[in-house]
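Recall the central idea of this unit: under ordinary conditions, the amino acid sequence of a chain determines the structure it adopts. In this exercise we apply that idea directly, starting from the sequence alone.
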Amino acid sequence: MVEPRVYEAMRQPIVSHVDPYFFQVAEDIHRLLALVFGTRNLFTMVISGTGSAGMEAAIVNFTDPGARFAVFANGYFSDRITDIARRQGADVVRFEKPWGETFGEEEARAFILRERPAVVAYVQAETSTGAWQNGKAICEAAHEIGALVIGDCVTSLGGMPVEVDATGIDIAYSCTQKGLSCPPGLAPITLSPRALDKLRARSVPARSFYFDLKLLDEYFQGAHRYHHTAPITMFYALREALAVIAEEGLEKRFERHRRNHLALVAGLEALGLRMHVTDPAQRLWTLNTPRVPEGVDDLKVRKRLIEEHGIEILGGFGPLARKVFRIGLMGASSTAENVRTLLGALESALRA
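Accordingly, the structure predicted from this sequence is:
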């Protein structure tokens, strides 16, 4: 759900993409976004595009043909990272686990030290499985061998502590339509000083003009040299959404998400459902994945929810197709009332 104040912000008159007021809005976003990412990075901005644009920008700017690129693969979006890296000509190596499992510190470290990649990528919050990956050990091992770390924070930003600096993520990206309670259309991204130095030292331009972060840096933070026509209305929307987060306070916001997640899990278990991610510490607060009970048709349940109650939840895909429900509980949607409403409707649908 989109914050009501965001809709109001989107009614503001559009200005030019090189108007001084637009760059003031972009600077406000830079300041507020750094707070939510948990970083002091100077390079913190948004890309005109959805979360996948952030993913592609993160990869194309730091991946050269033939370079070794390591992926912690345990879900759909780690597979997408793999695909994009291969399209860049990278030498991709993968540490694979079943969808929904996470990687331990020692095994993650051993993989990185054995493969010695130039870039390491992992998904902090996997939308396809509901699993949370602690990335601190991954980042520490990668930095030992001089590698950069890409962290996918699409389903965590704004709903869980991302903590870019404390974790050690070098390139983190996200989206606007999940934990930030905006419409889709922008991809927040932040670069560590280590990554920024690597970017500025590139002698060959990135293989994508649109996602060239050096050019985008000149547009937003540098001389404001024209690069593309930014979606002005979405910048208004994001600034207002980030202002709402700042007013609520990060600690209160995270606690709200944690509390509502725990309430939902307790209710699901009371209905007899089991969570796909078995370790409570490895579950997302924003995306919940109960397993579909034996003998229940998940398509019929989801159809009944949306037709009779106006509630939309999604099913699994890939190896989890027809095996899990995916229930978003993030941003403006994460309320105790929504938890109660969903549990009541789901109980009725399951009985039917």
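Residues 250-270 form the longest helix (21 residues).
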